[in-house]
Amino acid sequence: MSLGKARFQGLRQQAVSIAATLFGLLLLTFVIGRVMPADPVRAMIGEDASQETYEQVYRQLGLDRPMWEQFAVYLKNVATGDFGTSIRTGHPVIQDILHVFPATIELATLAILLGAGLGIPLGVLAAVNKDRWQDHAIRVFSLMGHSMPIFWTGMLGLLVFYAWLGWAGGSGRMDFFYTGEIPTPTGFLLIDSLLAGRIDIFLSALRHLILPALLLGYASSAYITRMVRSFMLDQLGQEYIVTARVKGLSKRQTIWRHAFANIRVQLITIVALAYGSLLEGAVLVETVFAWPGFGQYLTSNLIIGDMNAVMTCVLLVGVIFIALNMLSDILYRVFDPRTR
């Protein structure tokens, strides 16, 4: 088989796999929307509406049709970019999500940069100093980050760094008196404030962002540290490490150029999954800090039974993880030529 033909078959198989995954995700999202105990009709018309009104809206929503027909309509609507209208806001759901999602991306991106920047070197340091005091201290540090409830650390952080020391901003993305002072074409407040030339708003947004990002980054670093330590211990026990030292390579070169280089592919997966978890799992932090992001949007709509919004949020989370897995596959080929 020629190389070009093999590559074509590989791409075709990947495309089929992605299409099957997306179809399964759509089916799962649809089933979740139908088995949830919330009644979308009551959420729309209220509890005091008459039975006649209820039945009329029930038919208008197509809930009287067979399940397979409802699913076909759902697929058609999704294919055309129609995810329905939010009961809570009265806006198209996709418009609401595009409005709130940049806040979560901004928070999660800074958090994963802090988490990976702290977790990777700590994991390497713990592995190199296995069973020494450095290893024990790092393992305790990671265990605390993994075990402490994020809502508890969030409230404690607000109490200490906002109320007591005054170092961090309070709730929201910036001080309330800056609201509406700059246009937000990107939705990323740090970028928009710089584009508008408002350093004061940039600093205010950074003060509000840094504390929740640090807390999420600490939780992510705990997971990353443990995984990096495990991967490095496995590599440091291999024979090629002994050979490298015998050949005269320094300890630093052996650790970073050889052992660490061989865990980069695994590390890509760990960081990608941690980032995806931050994007969809920052609900408690966004609630504690009144952060107007994706997690808070999902929670508020789930409480009132706004199934159009909930189903779209669930679908988006699945798409995020599919995209991150695809990105990981691409990066595998960059960092490990054997996977090409």
UniProtKB/TrEMBL annotation:
A Gene Ontology cellular-component term: plasma membrane
UniProt keyword annotations, A-Z: Cell membrane, Membrane, Transmembrane, Transmembrane helix, Transport
A GO molecular-function annotation: dipeptide transmembrane transporter activity
Subcellular location: Cell membrane
Chain segments annotated as transmembrane: 15-36, 107-128, 149-167, 201-224, 267-289, 309-332
Matching SUPFAM superfamilies: MetI-like
One Pfam family from the record: BPD_transp_1_N
Membrane topology value: Multi-pass membrane protein
InterPro entries membership: BPD_transp_1_N, MetI-like, MetI-like_sf
Record's keyword annotation contains Aminoacyl-tRNA synthetase: no
ABC transmembrane type-1 domain sequence ranges: 101-328
Record carries keyword Lipid biosynthesis: no
PANTHER family: D,D-DIPEPTIDE TRANSPORT SYSTEM PERMEASE PROTEIN DDPB-RELATED (PTHR43163:SF8), DIPEPTIDE TRANSPORT SYSTEM PERMEASE PROTEIN DPPB-RELATED (PTHR43163)
UniProt similarity note: Belongs to the binding-protein-dependent transport system permease family.
Protein name: Peptide/nickel transport system permease protein
